[in-house]
Amino acid sequence: MEHNIYMYKIVIHLSKPDKEEKTTKLIWVKESDGIFSVKSAYDSIVETDLEFDESNFNLVWKVWAPSNASALGWRVFLDRIQTKMNLVRRNIPISSCACPWCGIAEETTSHLLFVCPFAWCVWSLILRWLGIFFVLPGESMDHFKQFVNCWSLATKSGLATIWLATVWHLWHGRNAVIFREENLESVGIFEAVKLKSWSWIKACNKNCPHSLSEWFNEPLACLGDM
Ligand SMILES: [Zn+2]
Question: What is the pTM of this model?
Fold first, then answer.
C-alpha cells in the first residue's frame, strides 16, 4: 500500500513529451536532464508532503476565482456543504439520501464530487483535456493535492482554478438536478468547466495573451505562460 502511494506521487512528476519531439518518451521533470533517479524521487515526495500542509490548504483562497467559489472549496474540504447525508447528521428529515447522479449510493461530499461514476466521468474528461493520466483519490483534500501538483509549479494556481471550477459545476449541477429537475450530462458539465475556468482566469490575468480556442486546445501551455 505504502509503495502504491509513493508510486502515484512519482507519476505526478512525469511530463508529456516535448512538442518538438517526434518520438514519445516520458520526461522526469524534477531533473534538468529529464532522467529519473530514486534520490530525486525521494526528495520530491518529502518536498511535496512538507509544502502541502503549509500552503496547499490555503491555496484555495488564492486561486483565480471569485471568493464565493473559494468559500465553496473550503466548505468541501471541511465537509460542510449541505449534502443529504450532512443534513441527516443534523437531524433534518430527508425522503431519500440517494445521490442525484447515480441514484444508488448515499450522497456524501466525497461520493457526490469525487467518487460517483458521474463525477468520475467529469474528472476523467478534465484530465484527458489536460493530457494528464492518473487515478485521483476519493477524499477532497487528497484529491485537490494530487490535482494541483500534477504538473509544474508554474501551473499550480491555474490547476487549482480548474479544480475549483469543476467542484463548482458539480455542486451547482447537483442543485439543478434536485431543485429544478434538470437533466445534465457529464460532458455538459465538462464544457461548462472549461468556460468557467477560462472566465475566472481571464478576469484575474488581464494581460493573458491567449484566446479561448487556445485555452480549449492547449490549457497547460496557456497556464505555463501566466
Ligand atoms: Zn452517485
Answer: 0.75
